[in-house]
Write a structure and sequence with these properties.
alpha+beta; 282 residues
């Protein structure tokens, strides 16, 4: 995917408090500076919304998406945001990248077979045969296997709730990513070399999780040499990073009046029929 060369970021917001002239704090910053920086500390959800509003206003050529997680993971001093299939985990069986993609392909074939042979014909499943990315989306979203897609959301509220999810630390991180504008359910952008999938539009209506999570899944486009280890850096969504914020996990004051963390039972709908189908592949 293409790199965002520079943008107005959380660093600009930090500089703004130093009483500098606008020309000194509002200038777009190189991506490297953003990746190496620490997240901006945020005390409340209201403060986060206000800061993101400033970033959105000054990056109007992009659509903002959000991702909440427990830590700001770095490699060689720079933030890295890799899709699951490219991540290295110490406690996981070490498969070569090509083997991971072979496993993914097996799961795609199995998923199509299950829906094809199901006595219940779910609306929207015919799209699985037309767009491989939709099969990947379901497998990723329901945590069946690793894929070259990254979970994102259009909702800052959802992203913050995910930063809290299973987080045993004192803080969480919110990433703000800049993506091209898109008009369709699946946005293939040849210039930026990105695909972005709006789950609410492509998943079967019986799939409940995507609706509660306002979920999107994004990846590199075209699907060319995705299993080549030498090209993994090109698939890192840190290339699209605009800003990052650190939010407190232990403070009751973060959410404030009128807002609160979306319960786990809502984010992960247990009685989701599509989840039950996908889990047959585990």
């Amino acid at each position: 995917m293409k790199i965002i060369s520079s943008s107005f970021s959380h660093i600009n917001l930090l500089k703004r408090t130093e009483k500098l002239a606008v020309k000194d704090w509002a200038k777009a910053l190189p991506l490297d500076d953003i990746l190496k920086s620490d997240p901006k500390k945020i005390a409340t959800y209201d403060d986060l919304v206000k800061d993101v509003a400033q970033i959105l206003h000054r990056n109007r050529n992009l659509t903002l998406y959000y991702r909440g997680q427990s830590n700001d993971y770095k490699s060689e001093g720079k933030t890295t945001i890799l899709p699951s299939i490219y991540r290295k985990k110490e406690d996981e069986k070490k498969l070569m990248l090509k083997e991971r993609f072979e496993l993914l392909n097996e799961k795609v074939i199995g998923l199509k077979k299950i829906f094809r042979e199901s006595p219940i014909k779910y609306a929207g499943t015919n799209l699985l045969n037309k767009y491989e990315e939709i099969s990947w989306s379901l497998l990723q979203h329901y945590e069946i296997c690793q894929t070259p897609l990254l979970d994102l959301t259009h909702s800052l509220h959802v992203a913050c709730s995910f930063a809290f999810d299973k987080n045993q630390g004192n803080t969480g991180v919110i990433y703000v990513l800049g993506m091209p504008w898109q008009m369709d359910a699946i946005g293939y952008n040849t210039f930026e070399e990105l695909v972005n999938i709006r789950l609410l539009s492509v998943c079967p209506p019986k799939a409940q999780r995507p609706f509660f999570q306002e979920g999107y899944l994004a990846g590199h486009f075209p699907n060319y040499q995705l299993d080549n280890p030498k090209k993994v850096d090109q698939f890192d969504f840190a290339r699209r990073l605009i800003a990052k914020f650190e939010i407190p996990m232990k403070s009751d004051k973060f959410w404030g009046v009128g807002f609160g963390r979306i319960p786990e039972s809502k984010l992960y709908q247990k009685m989701d029929p599509i989840k039950m189908i996908c889990e047959q592949l585990k």
